[in-house]
Amino acid sequence: MRGVPSYAPPAASASLAVQATPERLALGEKLVMSSCADCHRNPQTNTLSGQLIPDLTPDFGRIYSANITQDKTHGIGGWTDGQLAALLRTGLGPDGRYRLVMPSFVHMSDEDMESIIAFLRSDNPLLRATPVASHAQEPSFLLKALTNTVMKPTPMPTQPVLAPAPTDAVAYGRYLVVGRYKCYECHSKDFASNNALEPEKSTGYLGGGNPMLNREQKAVVTRNLTMDENTGLGDWTPAQFAQAIRFGMSPHGPLAYPMPKYSTLTDEEVNGLWAYLQTVPKIKNATPEDGAVTQ
Ligand code: HEC
Ligand code: HEC
Question: Where is each Cytochrome c domain found (predicted)?
Fold first, then answer.
């Protein structure tokens, strides 16, 4: 049985120096709160100093998010902007070690990524240098096997990555689903059969049914986001969709962790998501709120 493979360190840009404009800090805060904090926030320190990830089912093992506070020894205080960008793009640290379970944001726009980096350098209390070491990983055999087959580093983009204009609602919505918020990662069939480079090739793309755990360690499955009328969102109104993703109130009842709270989504984002979901091939896949029984 092979362990997690090691790789050559990624080609980090030596010249990247992100300017922290007010726009970037605001966008970076919004993106870190929606897409990083649920995994990285430690409830004891109340900083992003890392924790046991609560929502992974035990078949992946015990996986701990890392300390990404500004601590120079234990956090990312000593990393360059180029090293951070390379980690977010490829999943590889400057040491060439593949970061398990940490999503690779390969389709995120350069501007979004640099906004995240700007915020990670800011004086927000969540990032206060916290001198605790990141926990060693305890991957299961399954997870080790997956890192030898499907869960692999993604390549550094060779071209600038730009987000489509919000006026092109469908293209913008696709960008939000695969690039910015990565809804498809949780909402396709299984983490083990996702395709990071070509997200639409993930098994059961956006059809839900991926088994996760909530904060009480009870099983939840993600829901079908395709427009199937019986098992998906085909019978929802745009207002119900907005209410569900912004405030966690679905027509089926309240939504809880691990569904993130996207309370800061703009109208353009909500409209784009809804417009894009209309174009995704429908999948018939009943989840428990449709009356399906799961073990
Ligand atoms: C699904 C949970 C999850 C999400 C979401 C997530 N991370 Fe991580 N992250 C991890 C895990 C787990 C590790 C440690 C992996 C390892 O050591 O093998 C990690 C490692 C890292 C590291 C490397 C730190 C080090 O010292 O090795 C950085 C930097 C990082 N994450 C930043 C982010 C940022 C920024 C975001 C949001 C854009 C984010 N992460 C979202 C789980 C997550
Ligand atoms: C970290 C995993 C994760 C991510 C990322 C995620 N979701 Fe979810 N989502 C869930 C889970 C789990 C549920 C079910 C929650 C529950 O049962 O309380 C859910 C439920 C939903 C529902 C309710 C559907 C219904 O039938 O009631 C909608 C709508 C939804 N998500 C949309 C989105 C959108 C849009 C995105 C991206 C902007 C997204 N989700 C990102 C995990 C996730």
Answer: 23-124, 168-281
- Ligand closest in space to the Cα of 251: 2
Nearest alpha carbon, ligand 2 atom 39? 183
Q: Name every residue whose Cβ is closer than 8 Å to that of residue 284 and which is 6 or more positions away in sequence.
A: 228, 230, 231
99 lines ligand 1 (CB under 6 A): yes
Atom of ligand 1 nearest to the CA of 38: 5
Q: Is the CB of 220 under 6 A from ligand 2?
A: yes
What is the per-residue pLDDT for 293?
A: 47
List Cα–Cα distances, 211 to 20, 33, 86, 152, in angstroms. 38, 23, 29, 21
Write the pLDDT tens digit of every residue in 69-124. Answer: 999 999 999 999 999 999 999 999 999 999 999 999 999 999 999 999 999 999 99
Choose which CATH entry (1.20.1630, 3.40.1130, 1.10.760, 3.40.50) describes domain 22-147. Answer: 1.10.760
pLDDT at 291: 59
pTM of the predicted model as reported, rounded to 2 decimal places? 0.96
Pocket perturbation via mutation, ligand 2, pick of 189, 259, 278 by most ligand atoms within 8 A of CB: 259
**Over the chain, what is the mean pLDDT?**
95
